Amino acid sequence: MPDDSPVAEFDFIIVGAGSAGCLLANRLSANPDHRVLLIEAGGDDDWFWIKVPVGYLYTIANPRTDWCFTTEADPGLAGRSIIYARGRVIGGCSSINAMIHMRGQASDYELWAQATGDERWLWGGPDRPGETLALYKELEDYFGGADEWHGAGGEIRVERPRVRWKILDAWQAAAAEMGIVPIEEFNRGDNSGSAYFHVNQRRGRRWSMADAFLHPVTHRPNLTVYTRTQALRLLMDDQVHDHQRRGAWTTAQHRATGLRLLKDGQVIDVRARREVILSAGAVGSPHLLQVSGVGPAKLLAEHDVPVAVDLHGVGENLQDHLQLRTVYRVRGARTVNTLYRNWITRAGMGLQYLVLRSGPLTMPPSTLGAFARSEPGLATPDMEWHVQPLSLPKFGEALHPFAAITPSVCNLRPTSRGHVRLTGADTRSDPKIFCNYLSTDADRDVAVRGLRMTRKIMAASALARYSPQEMLPGSSVVSDEDMENAARELGTTIFHPVGTCAMGAFDARGLPRSAATVLDTDCRVFGVAGLRVADASAMPTITSGNTNAPVMLIAERAARAILG
């Protein structure tokens, strides 16, 4: 229950009960001497559609569970603004996301190690430096049990998908004709090939990070959870104790002492005796820092926000995976489109789920994946496909009235960078999200190659019996210029924003080596003692694939740094 004292005091205050926040609340409250407060702007995760895997159709773009952000008009998307879903509910994005368990590739963590100067981020393994693989194994409860690559008994449940599609098996065979061979699974460090995605589910139900980390410990008397509570700004003072002058706090002139909140219509203050940890995500965390006076001085001055720390990287360095949705009509194939057309088959799907916890209602947004190189000389794959046995004009609209599949391809290592910036001194005003997609030659080149490779796969003999017909972008799109324009028209987010409070390296004086750096390798905010950011915004570079699992890695590392 919430503390009723005028100014409630805790040892640790965590902003955001999403994936990272749930893990941090679990770890920090394990010591009964720690009083921990977890703050969530949304409500409880007890809605039926959160637990049913296909319920993402109802939770995304729904204010009950989603912040319902939209991006700024983007030249890279032909001037379009798009929906930018972010979880606003206990469990955060893990309560509304695709449930795909994807660690990324070993090469991703080499970039993190280079950016931070910390070899612990390396993938690791027998006789190799780095602890990333070992931490993933500790966190995991893998359906196949513990082995060289996986762990058992951890909190994060990982299972096989509970439905297969012949049309997707045929797509996988067609990809093999193009050199993208079937593999047993992703998550072993090099994802080259194709496989059905492993998912965060337990017996056919979504297994969010709230299920994994928060719900099992809500009985702890030293853990308090505030729901429907908006963080308005950080509270700071100028008294920095010597023992807090470590890492990014070496030159700190301020200390985070708590937060101002809006709870039950009342503005209240809560105090943190030890630390405040922001886990509000790649949009929420930089926004809260900015309205609190931590960010680019020029930007803050434009909105009459007093500058506490002039920190250029806050809100900058936004990276995301842009998926290019192609649609192919097929004949003689069972797809979600054909099943959903008939009320009898719809009822059958529901019954199959209720009785057996299997079938299409257990399906994540994308079922089959594939990784490949856009150029032969690359060391590891830089393109990924998410293949869906369905199609629709755009998210939120009705399925097409014909059988079809959607092979979406994305650039795993975009060089385009966007930003998140405040629009005023109040966190209740949505920030500006500018993704700046396809703003570099390199990204446009990969987009063209991805569309061409998709077309080659769809023309392979393994799919011939289904007579695939290209609906989007359409056979009239031929030249590179046409392909670029198609990418702008078709492109949309896969909801993987990262990097807006990036970790980086510091010099001997305790100063960031890069203008993009906001955090040190232990997620401490430069210039403000007692303050960390532990969520997707901490990633210096985006990982190869879905980002929820890497967020859990960051949260676990941050928890160990705090407790250590």
From TrEMBL:
Its cofactor is FAD. Keywords: FAD, Flavoprotein. This is GMC family oxidoreductase N-terminal domain-containing protein. PANTHER family: CHOLINE DEHYDROGENASE, MITOCHONDRIAL, GLUCOSE-METHANOL-CHOLINE GMC OXIDOREDUCTASE. Belongs to the GMC oxidoreductase family. The keyword Flavoprotein applies. The keyword Flavoprotein applies. Residues 281-295 form the Glucose-methanol-choline oxidoreductase N-terminal domain. It holds the Pfam family GMC_oxred_N. SUPFAM superfamilies: FAD-linked reductases, C-terminal domain (SSF54373), FAD/NAD(P)-binding domain (SSF51905). It comes from the Bacteria. InterPro entries: FAD/NAD-bd_sf (IPR036188), GMC_OxRdtase (IPR012132), GMC_OxRdtase_N (IPR000172), GMC_OxRtase_C (IPR007867).
